[in-house]
Amino acid sequence: MKTVLMTSAAAVAMLCSNALHAQGTDLVGTWSLVSSDIVNDGSKTETFGPNPQGSLIFGSDGHYALIFIRSDLPKVASGNRVVTTPEENKAIAGGLVATYGTYTADDRFITMHIAHATFANWAGANQQRPYTISGDSLVYTSPGTTGVPTVVTLQRVK
What we know:
Number of strands: 9
Order of helices and strands: HEEEEHEEEEE
Radius of gyration: 18 Å
Strand content: 35-45%
Largest sheet: 8 strands, antiparallel, barrel
Mean pLDDT: 86
CATH architecture: Beta Barrel
Number of domains: 1
CATH topology: Lipocalin
Low-confidence stretches: 1-24
Distance between the termini: 41 Å
Number of helices: 2
């Protein structure tokens, strides 16, 4: 009986881990941020500046973690991350976003079920993002925090 249960559990785990691939997606893995741009009325705003840094990790277990950061965040003058000026706080808050939770996907959409986020308004939200994968490039459209969608481009980390 123990062998049957272990075999059944292994089969279920394998099916779950392959479910995203069976749906035609290839998201599982680590992706590096290339760009994050708001395009509005023909003008483009680089959300995290001209040289953004960050990673988006999709686990085969259905969990994800995302962190995007401006490369030019200010150093905190006090040297203590909890002793900052209002200007430092504003620059840091405006140049960083991190979320984690679970995700589901099909051939066209990633739905991020956000557990927590540096932008606390997103905690508990489900965000659906249309996406495409071409080779090692992932492009999706995020609802963004400004009310205008943000086009995010990532490169698969090998």
